[in-house]
Design brief:
Layout: H1 10-40, H2 45-72, H3 81-99, H4 107-135, H5 137-140, H6 144-173, H7 187-211, H8 216-219, H9 230-234, H10 238-243, H11 251-254, E1 255-258, E2 261-266, E3 269-273
Antiparallel strand pairs: 1-2, 2-3
Helix pairs in contact: 1-2, 1-4, 1-6, 1-7, 2-4, 3-4, 3-7
Length: 293
């Protein structure tokens, strides 16, 4: 590793933490999207819940997929930045149109289809940002405390914007008007909040991505020449099933991989592998639930 790699400064921590703002706005949308579609726009409540559930199913598929693709990416920007940049436009657009369905989108069928498309698109784009954003921490620095500071900044800002959006919704956008006595039923309020949220999302991811650009020479050193094959990955699976007869059925729960940080969870043993000297982080081999890389 090069000795002249950039240091983690206060500005770096703020740049990394800025990504939490966009994530906080997106997370806050869960609190209001069902009310907006079922109570304000008139979509059947069961269909609204189903549309959100479909997005969660797609999320379970795209998380490991994009983690694998991000790990396997080779570019002059490293493994993470291409995905970070690629997430900006679809994430901003899907969030905006989630709150601004066209006038012809009316009735259960069209509203349901619109919500499914926007929700799946938004969650997929969020995964394109969030998985590389978490994975990049282990590549920015090998220092445990510095990694903790980076993630602390991210999640503190995330919490501020998640809860701050709720305050703004009821203080500014969902207030009673002369025409609508119940502010929660005001569609214009949700649309204005959606526009504001879109600006915050796009700005936060841009600050996050551009703020970490100076680390690209360091990040390029983590690129892999050849991604792991399915055969080599599958060879690890029996290690859990041999330890417990039901382990093969719960492999997704037992051993999960997210981007460059490998998290192996087997029974009472939980080990996170990232950065340098991963072998030293494993528990002793006496544990029958131990998963080995």
């Amino acid at each position: 590793m090069a000795r002249d790699t950039p240091r983690i400064t206060t500005g770096t921590r703020w740049a990394y933490g800025s990504g939490g703002a966009g994530y906080g706005v997106l997370y806050n949308a869960h609190f209001f999207v069902l009310i907006y579609y079922s109570q304000v726009l008139g979509l059947d409540a069961g269909l609204a819940g189903l549309a959100v559930g479909i997005g969660l199913v797609f999320d379970a598929i795209t998380d490991p997929l994009i983690g694998y693709l991000s790990d396997s990416t080779r570019s002059r920007w490293g493994r993470r930045h291409p995905w970070l940049y690629a997430s900006i436009l679809p994430l901003g657009a899907s969030f905006y149109f989630l709150w601004h369905p066209p006038g012809f989108v009316a009735g259960n069928t069209l509203l349901f289809a619109w919500l499914v498309v926007c929700n799946v698109s938004m969650r997929t784009a969020l995964t394109m940002f969030l998985v590389p954003a978490y994975a990049i921490v282990a590549e920015l620095t090998a220092d445990y405390d510095e990694r903790t500071r980076l993630l602390t900044c991210f999640h503190v800002i995330n919490s501020v914007f998640t809860n701050g959006m709720s305050v703004l919704m009821y203080a500014i956008w969902l207030v009673p008007t002369e025409e609508i006595s119940d502010g929660v039923m005001n569609p214009e309020g949700y649309q204005n909040a959606g526009l504001f949220g879109t600006v915050v999302i796009v700005a936060s991811i841009l600050v996050f991505t551009i703020g970490l650009r100076r680390f690209i020479p360091r990040l390029r050193q983590y690129q892999v020449d050849k991604p792991p094959s399915r055969a080599s990955s599958s060879a690890r699976w029996p290690m859990c099933s041999e330890a417990h007869p039901r382990a093969s059925l719960s492999w997704v729960v037992c051993c999960t991989t997210r981007a460059s940080a490998l998290t192996w969870r087997c029974g009472c043993t939980s080990t996170v592998i990232s950065g340098s000297s991963p072998a030293s982080r494993f528990p002793s081999s006496s544990s029958p639930w131990r998963c080995r890389p």
